[in-house]
Amino acid sequence: MQIILNGERSTVPEAWTEEPLLFVLREHFGLAGAKYGCGAGFCGACTVLVDGVPTRSCITPAAAADGAEVRTVEGLANGDRLHPVQAAWIELGVPQCGYCQSGQIMSAVALLETTPQPTAEDVDVAMAGNLCRCGTYGRIRAAIARAAEAGA
Ligand code: FES
Ligand code: FES
């Protein structure tokens, strides 16, 4: 099967198609940004975008993404130019341990692509499935607001 992975047509070998998309991304393609947290769809550490929709890749078989556009945190920057969400995350020093952050960033990117000027409630709803054990929620909200200002 084929997916468009961070803009490039990519082949997922037959042997990997029933594996969770997270394992295919991390182990077959070597993209380790998305993390294994709960492995059960509850924490959001594994969030990637499948056709623009935040998706828990730990519980999504790779086959479910057949023909889809898959975006990971590694695909956000354009060369040396960071995505505005990444830039805001750095500017506001959002991460603490960092483990949850690529999932947080991907959910924020999806939110701003559909809702460029989100309300506080929009942010709460969009980010509700992304847990952070370090409690960086306040900085995440501020960084989303900063990225929205920057026209992410
Ligand atoms: S690792 Fe996928 S939701 Fe927690
Ligand atoms: S920064 Fe540590 S879990 Fe979120």
Architecture overview:
The protein is an alpha+beta fold. The chain has 2 domains: 2-72, Beta-grasp domain (Ubiquitin-like (UB roll), Roll), CATH 3.10.20; 84-149, [2Fe-2S]-binding domain (DNA polymerase, domain 1, Orthogonal Bundle), CATH 1.10.150. 34% of the residues lie in helices and 12% in strands. It has a 5-stranded mixed β-sheet, with helices on one face. A hairpin with a 2-residue loop joins strand 3 (47-50) and strand 4. Helix 2 packs across helix 5 (137-149) and helix 3 (101-114) packs across helix 4 (120-127). The radius of gyration is 15 Å and the shape is globular. The model has no long low-confidence stretch (mean pLDDT 97). The structure holds FE2/S2 (inorganic) cluster (FES) (2 copies).
Features:
binds FE2/S2 (inorganic) cluster, alpha+beta, five-stranded mixed β-sheet, DNA polymerase, domain 1, globular, Ubiquitin-like (UB roll), 152 residues, 5 helices
Strand order of the largest sheet: 2-1-5-3-4
Calculate Rg over CA atoms.
15 Å
> So what's the CATH class of the largest domain?
Alpha Beta
User: Ends: how far apart?
Assistant: 32 Å
Q: What is the count of distinct domains?
A: 2
% residues in beta strands: 5-15%
Average predicted confidence as pLDDT: 97
Show the helix and strand layout.
Layout: E1 2-5, E2 8-11, H1 21-28, E3 47-50, E4 53-56, E5 69-71, H2 84-91, H3 101-114, H4 120-127, H5 137-149
Parallel strand pairs: 1-5
Antiparallel strand pairs: 1-2, 3-4, 3-5
Helix pairs in contact: 2-5, 3-4
One FE2/S2 (inorganic) cluster binds at residues 36-39, 41-46, 56, 58.
